[in-house]
Amino acid sequence: MTSSSTWINQISELKNNSKIKSRTCKTYVKHPEKEICQCGRLKPSHSYTTLHHLDLNERTDINVKWNEGRDSSSVPINVYGIRPSNGPKFIRCDNRTKPLSLYNLILNDCKKQEPTLLISAYGGAKYFTLSERLEKDFVTGIIDLATRA
């Protein structure tokens, strides 16, 4: 079994066991100054594939601030894979995921050898906003730098 199929199998098993979840915005709360949700994503970028289309609410009162607890929900992992450029693996998980669950995932993937480099990226609209193309280029750049280090 190749490393890539092992990674995909591990994620599939985690999806079935619900040990690691992802998080997605379920309420479109229009930003007061921009044509985006207060979560930082464009309306079409909300998780229609993860949530039933009817479950995506739209709040028109712009005086109400977006709140992670109220306006997002935990969902099965839906963003993971292996970068085609040079093979680094990635997973987008809920920020409430227990670190031990992620550590065990990494150890299993590394055949119980501790990795020498881990990168965690956390951010959102309150930090900065990038176009989808720039975001992909940014992530690709970080991964390429990390794999050369």
TrEMBL record:
Residues in the signal sequence: none
Molecular function (Gene Ontology), one example: ligand-gated calcium channel activity
Cellular component terms per the entry's GO annotation: plasma membrane
One Pfam short name: LSDAT_euk
Domain TRPM SLOG: start-end pairs: 89-147
InterPro entries in alphabetical order: TRPM, TRPM_SLOG
Protein name from the UniProt record: TRPM SLOG domain-containing protein
Organism: Adineta steineri
PANTHER family per the UniProt record, alphabetical: TRANSIENT RECEPTOR POTENTIAL CATION CHANNEL SUBFAMILY M MEMBER-LIKE 2, TRANSIENT RECEPTOR POTENTIAL CATION CHANNEL, SUBFAMILY M, MEMBER 6
